[in-house]
Amino acid sequence: MDIKKDILWRVYLCFIGIILLGAVVLGRAFFLQQVQGAYWKSMGDSLHLKYVPLVAERGTIFSEDGNMLSTSIPIFDVYVDFGADGLREKNGKRFKQYSDTLSSCLANLFKDKTKEDYLNELQLAYKNVDRYYTLKKKITFLEYEQLREFPLVKLGRNKSGFMIDPRDKRINPYALLASRTIGLSRDNAKLNVGLEQSYDSLLRGRTGQRLMRYIAGAYMPVEGAEVEPENGKDIITTLDTYIQDITESALMKMMVDNNSNHGTAIVMETATGKIKAIANLGKQPDGTYVEDLNYGIAKATEPGSIFKLATLLSLIEDKYVTKNSIVDCEGGAKSFYGLKIKDAHLGAGSITVKDAFSASSNVAFAKLADQYYHNDPSKFLAHLHHLRLDTLTGIDITAASARPTIKSPKNRSWSKTTIPYMAHGYEELLTPLHLLMVYNAVANNGTMMQPYLVNSVNQYGVEVKRILPKVLVNKICSDETLAQLKECLKAVVDSVHGTGHKVLYDTNYSISGKTGTAVTALDNRGYNKGNKIYQASFMGYFPSEKPAYTIAIVIQNSAQSKLIYGADVSGKVFKEISDKIYARYLSHQKFKRSLTPDTLQYRYYGMKNELNSIFSQLNLPFVDSAIGGYWRTMQMKDNAAVFNLPESANTDALVIPSVVGMGLKDAVYLMENKGLKVMATGRGRVFSQSIEAGTSFIKGQTVTLFLN
């Protein structure tokens, strides 16, 4: 009996234990499900689900004339879900049916593998039941269109397992064209440059997201669980592709021919401050030139003689001198506190300030600045501050903009020689854009405009923001000073002694500006005492009477450069750019330069209609004294012409005509029409002929023309 009770007691005890354990399990389950359920569910989802960003389509950067400068094109990544029900049903019948043909199509499209390679690849992935197999990345839209029509793929995602993931790739359609200014768009926005960086927040749009589920060792997108991205806005720049192209080409041509190190060319619309073109080229170790740095904005250097405009403005505005004041250049060399300053061309004595500016006398400007500002440098520095030469330019590309350096007496490097050296362009560091703003202000009747690169911001073709021209300084100086500055700038080109006359005077329009040739300091090694490295510059505007564009050209030459002076290097680039801009955009406005009387007589012989066309196009006066005939001799004097009938025009058919003075084309035309055979030696115009004019001849006879 006692044994029975003992056994029952043990059974009851076990039963009670089981009940208590069950209660604990149920309680814990209830707690986990009801109290901590949300937490553990989210924990489970985090292991199997995740959101990945969907990058928005980046906005396009356009030129002012509507061309795409930087845009996004679609590229596609191709994945295959080899676990898709439609692909594996009926023991993989569909996959086996199409895999061979599909492999052949893939090999023909991408040409990176053989048909057998693709077939083995697909069969292995199918065997391993890869759920998110990467077949191909970064295929183009044209490749994508062909892929969609391939066997198996065209059956759709559920039956084929093929998944296409579209994304964007950034390209610059014009490649080199203003590439440093437009900039680069990288995955890491902090590495962007140019407008791509400055306007990144507008261009990149708003990122969306996609839900991905972890299945069989890979994440796959969950259908219908996407938040669509918001595409970026478009940027309409101030750049003109034609002006940019000719600017880039002219700069490249000079730098290649002259073996220069680096250079920049900036074209600004005078009235608004719009940058119409900006080219930056640097020489690479292999000898090629690319846009490796924005030299016009990001590199501050000692400007040289183009700075003299700021010195001249200060002196005239403070009424210390006028353009007609006399300054002694002392033969072109003078010592200032133990340091000698020289002119490029020695020998000048007492000349006017205007002539000193046009001939670019370093001594004259160092002497005048030292005379009037040595004891009161703050007065000179106040003018430079008013010209914003100690301030950032404010252009859109703020991150790349170099800060200028204008010394003050507080600087440890300030010395007695600082003012005379600053006066002619040394001991200050400025970007080309800083000085371009000053030259543009003179051209713009004293109003300094802020340079800018973006006209507007558009979204889906609709303008959402307009950027208007901004005035930085209403008046940089008085009208009296401004008039004298303009006259001095014009003399640099128009005066026979001007440093820009030889290169820039021969145009159908007038140019005003200033040349500059500066010895450059190399890193921390100082100024090269052996083979000096020169920076050649020209800044100016055109047409002088009604300026439309202001241009800055700054080129650093190398020790191997044949040309070094501002006019010979940068002046030629300026002229090539200005000639083409004038021909395309301004020639219809009929800007005329004042022609000086030409007392030399010039003779020409040619066809009547061609001479009429040439003189009419050039707007030059002429008088035709003859009535009939196709040929004329032309005599020109004092910029006017008289057309006469040639003496040989009415001679008999079998009499040799005179073709002296003609070009070869006209001479051959006239002689062969007479029945003569023509041989020619030399180049140029005919200066003599083997058979004298007025002599009888036989048809088929040979006449030799001698060209000079």
Entry summary:
This protein is an alpha+beta fold. The chain is built from 22 helices and 31 strands.
Question: How does the SSE layout of this entry go?
Answer:
Blueprint: H1 2-35, H2 37-48, E1 49-54, E2 61-62, E3 68-80, H3 85-110, H4 115-127, E4 133-139, H5 141-148, H6 157-160, E5 162-171, H7 179-182, H8 194-198, H9 200-203, E6 208-215, E7 218-227, E8 234-237, H10 241-258, E9 262-269, E10 275-283, E11 289-290, H11 295-298, H12 308-317, E12 326-328, E13 333-336, E14 339-342, E15 350-352, H13 353-358, H14 362-373, H15 377-386, E16 405-406, H16 418-423, E17 428-429, H17 432-443, E18 448-449, E19 454-459, E20 462-466, E21 471-473, H18 479-494, H19 501-504, E22 512-519, E23 534-542, E24 549-556, H20 566-586, E25 602-607, H21 608-617, E26 622-624, E27 631-637, E28 640-644, H22 664-673, E29 677-681, E30 686-689, E31 702-707
Parallel strand pairs: 2-8, 26-28, 29-31
Antiparallel strand pairs: 1-6, 2-3, 3-4, 3-5, 6-7, 8-19, 9-10, 9-24, 10-11, 12-15, 13-14, 16-17, 18-21, 19-20, 22-23, 23-24, 25-27, 27-28, 30-31
Helix pairs in contact: 3-4, 10-20, 12-14, 12-18
- In the CATH hierarchy, what is the architecture of the largest domain at level 2? 3-Layer(aba) Sandwich
User: What would the principal axes of the Cα set say about the shape?
Assistant: flat
**In terms of per-residue confidence, which ranges show pLDDT below 50 for 5 or more consecutive residues?**
591-601
**What share of the residues does DSSP label as strand, in percent?**
15-25%
Instruction: Quickly name the level 1 CATH class of the largest domain.
Output: Alpha Beta
Question: CATH H-level name of the largest domain... which superfamily?
Answer: DD-peptidase/beta-lactamase superfamily
Number of strands: 31
Radius of gyration: 39 Å
The share of residues in helices is 25-40%
Mean pLDDT equals 83
CATH topology of the largest domain: Beta-lactamase
The span between the termini is 150 Å
The biggest beta sheet reads: 7 strands, mixed
Helix/strand class: alpha+beta
If helices are DSSP runs of H or I spanning 4 or more residues, what is the number of helices? 22
Total number of distinct structural domains = 4
